[in-house]
Amino acid sequence: MTSTAQPFGFSIAKVAPSNRVHALLALRERGLFPIEPLPNRMVHVDLFKWSLPDLNILSGTFAGIRHNNAAQLAEGELLLGLNLRGETTLVHCGRELTARRGDAFIANASPGSLNVFRPLTTQFIGLRIPQTVLAPLIRDMAEGVRLIPGDSPTVKLLIAYARALVCGNALALPETQRLFAAHLHDLVALAVGPRRDGAAGAELRSLPAVRLRAIKSDIVARLTDERLDVSAVAARQGITTRYLQRLFEQEGLTYSQFVLEQRLNRAYRLLGDPRFANWSVGTIAYEVGFGDLSYFNRTFRRRYQQTPTDMRHGRSAD
């Protein structure tokens, strides 16, 4: 697989209703996405595809579609699907399985043998990985399709990590793509069933970095909560508070330092954004999670060598 910094994106909302079926079939004919609209269903497709070293990622929201793996899975590839929302029905050799919210599924199927139905709105992330990459890591590579329940801790971590990658701009940076791909390879192996010797290696190589990225994404998503308690974040991640703190310490940070830096960064962006010119400094401080305006002013000046008001008006501090 080749590496490209820019994803391929497609949204049916940008296509005139009379041309939507034709547009979906054109995607199939071009080999970009093997999709067909289901009859008598509202069709929705909003997707992005990235190609990383030894990894293809598809992320999107779908409804009213069927696709098969004739073009989606090349010979010698394995598909791991993450069902973030809604239901996905998989039909392989006459056997039907349903992946529900939070579930994952693994498909090691010959081209054309797997059909996937999403009649209702489904949010999904799919990972295509060469079997040669996973063979040294996975215990069982037998052909077939199987579900991995969403209550699996590794599946939860895999979903959190994959979500963090596709929602940000991390995948657009070629210099870090190989690292992210390696992390996902290890997580897939841990979720599917690693070899005994491979499990320890995957945990040492990738789990700390993956957990820390998921923790950071959790924090950033909740910055507006001024009581962003470390124990609550740890509980959501299924780890102890001390382990969470150790992960930050390995980066030379504390939890509190990271939270403060993220809040200051967000305040800086809001102060410089013309769309929020009518917001007062106090409003912005509270919006990013500061409960004390004087503390916000002090820490902002220490971080950026100017007050929030000076920064908003383009004046540097003395």
Description:
This protein has 318 residues and is α+β, with helices and mostly antiparallel strands. It has 2 domains: 8-217, Sandwich (Jelly Rolls), CATH 2.60.120.10; 238-318, Arc Repressor Mutant, subunit A (Orthogonal Bundle). Helix content is 42%, strand content 23%. The protein is built from 13 helices and 12 strands. The protein has a 7-stranded antiparallel β-sheet. The radius of gyration is 22 Å and the shape is globular.
How would a crystallographer describe the biggest sheet?
7 strands, antiparallel
Overall number of structural domains: 2
Which fold name fills CATH's third level, the topology of the largest domain? Jelly Rolls
CATH superfamily of the largest domain: Jelly Rolls
Shape: globular
What separation lies between the terminal Cα atoms? 53 Å
Strand order, main sheet: write it out.
1-3-4-11-6-9-12
Share in helix: 40-55%
Class computed from helices, strands and strand pairing: alpha+beta
Query: What is the ordering of alpha helices and beta strands?
Result: EHEEEEHEEEEEEHEHHHHHHHHHH
The fraction of residues assigned to DSSP E strands is 15-25%
Residue stretches low in confidence (pLDDT < 50, at least 5 long) are: none
By CATH reckoning, the class of the largest domain would read Mainly Beta
- Treating each run of at least 4 consecutive H or I residues as one helix, how many helices? 13
Q: What Rg is obtained from the alpha carbons, in whole angstroms? A: 22 Å
Query: What is the CATH-assigned architecture of the largest domain?
Result: Sandwich
